[in-house]
Amino acid sequence: MARGLRKVRPQLSSAYISKWLRVLSNMSAGFLIIGTGTLVSLLLYQGMFYSQRISPMTQDRWSPLFQSCVLNSSGFVLGSCDPDEVASTGAIPWTSVGTQLARDLQRSESSEAPVYVATCVIGGYNGTSWANLMFLVGEHGFPKCKPMGKQVILGMASLETVGTDDFPLGAFLLSTFADARPVRPVQIATVNGVVTVIQSTVKTIIAPNGSTFAAPWEQRNYVTSVNSLNRLFLMRLWLVAHYLDISSLTDTLDGYSVGSHTGMTVAFGWDHSHTVDHYMLLLAFQVLICFVSLGLLSNDGVITLEGLSGLLKNKPVLTYDILASLERRKLLLVSLVCTFFFSPLYADAIRYTYAETGYHYWYLALLMVAVMMALSWMALLTSLQSVPVPKIWRNRPLCYSAPVFIYCTILFFVIYEGSFDSGKVESEAMWSHAQGTLGLVIHGQTRSSGAYTMTGMTPVIYLLMPDLVVCMLLAWGVSIAAHKWHVGYAILDTSWTSHNEFVNQLSKPQWVTSLNLDHKNTISIGSKLFCKPSLLVLLGYCIIRDKGVDATAATTNLYHPASSHHSSTHDKVETASYVVTTTKEGTTASRLGTTLYAAAQPPPHSSPNRLKTEFIVISIYDLVAALLPWIRRLVYSPHQFGTITTNKFLVTKSHTRLHEKANYTYSRGDCCG
């Protein structure tokens, strides 16, 4: 007796493994949707849609340029500056820079001697496309750009460029810390803590013709934008030059400068800020579309969890691949594309914040971009079915494996981008993709210094697109080859569908398909072909039955799925009076000892209750609504597509709906012809 009660272990056949892979693949679709919503929440928490951080550019990051300019109350002493210094802006703007610097430092014409101005540069080295000039003003000699220890100065100034509505082609921006002026410190809360900046900074815009205009202390430059999707969700970037109080950092620095009168330890720095327009609307849409996608996917989830439960208990199960059936689930396909629609914007936000926190999420963003493009390609191929097909190509669509295509696209793209650390590369080169206008000439080369056109910078999706398209096309080729290797052909013959009443009701794929519509997946009895329940679900429909019907009535089927421990390339499933045999050549049914009628008459000893078992065929989108009576009572009652009785499919009238008061349950159902 113990031997009879012993549980039979499943055989690790290819069919059994395939069932597990299909179940896990279906579950991964839900995980991707949940992961997208989680990622967006993390991005919001990490400040990916709005951030403000201040980075001090201490003097250990400067490079010496010249020690030649002498400044008096009128400006630079004529002929004192090196010609290369003058060439950085041109003679006329350079003269205005000297004049304005003297005003900012409050140099008196009557009582004060000339002072000395050292010119330094931030950036401007090999491999960088940007630079700005720094001026250090000393009373008794030229200050050092990289001092050792404490260095006393009269002032510090930066020279950059700026683009505004008044100066779309750019102008120069002079920002001056004058030690002779009263210091007004103000604290700014940023993502890296509270930073003390000097509000008494004097800022002046100097036009290329030498005219000067006062600017507010929070004057922005490096202003640009990224249009990843559309202007509703425009990502705006800008910098603000500040002078920072770094008294608390002196112990960590080799050298620094302090004001001769105020004694304040000062350093130049940039306030980096960005924001995404209407990002709360974006977040609301993302949350909504995730719920919609999960709601649509929940119907398949019921069948997938039923299959998972059967596999764990080693019972007969119905498994199928959601990804392969997306061309028959157009609403779900569109919803999934919309779920990942904002991934290019997330990639740009992560690129901008890569150095701080973005590197944690870069490859997740690449995965989302790859999924979006793969699903979009599938949607395009699905739309192709509406194009009339030539007669010679009718009923002969090209086949590919949708799961292989999607997973290979992700794998190829992420691995390739990771091979050269694309996140770091794109982050460092980000500003080079914005079109500059006016720059500074440093070491004979024009460097971007903060003035950019209003057209914005190139979105990262444009830069990644060539790699992504190559990976996607390669993955599609692999998916076609994988399908041919698995089933032995790449061109599918769908002419058999006219011999099955259920499949004949549906539109057939014409040009290309991921559906496994091989006649080998049917059961043939004479000239009639019977559609298996798994094929029915693949085509976007499912089977339910009334709970009031005797459960045992559902056990008399023309085809009964083999339990997982009997699955193989040659399955044999016996009923009371006939044998169903599945081989690589197809599935046939033969009667034991007598002729089997094409109508698949049940055994003569079957009970009347078994003869009239009726299965109801509904759209896969209506499964959850059919199983929950309160939805049928309060929201809507799903339409009934057809019925299956003794393996015969009958189309119901279009207005036929499920009974509101009935209790339905999901069923693997029956074959139908």
From TrEMBL:
Keywords: Membrane, Transmembrane, Transmembrane helix. It comes from the Eukaryota. The chain crosses the membrane at residues 20-45, 279-297, 331-349, 361-385, 397-416, 460-482. This is Uncharacterized protein. It comes from Aphanomyces astaci.
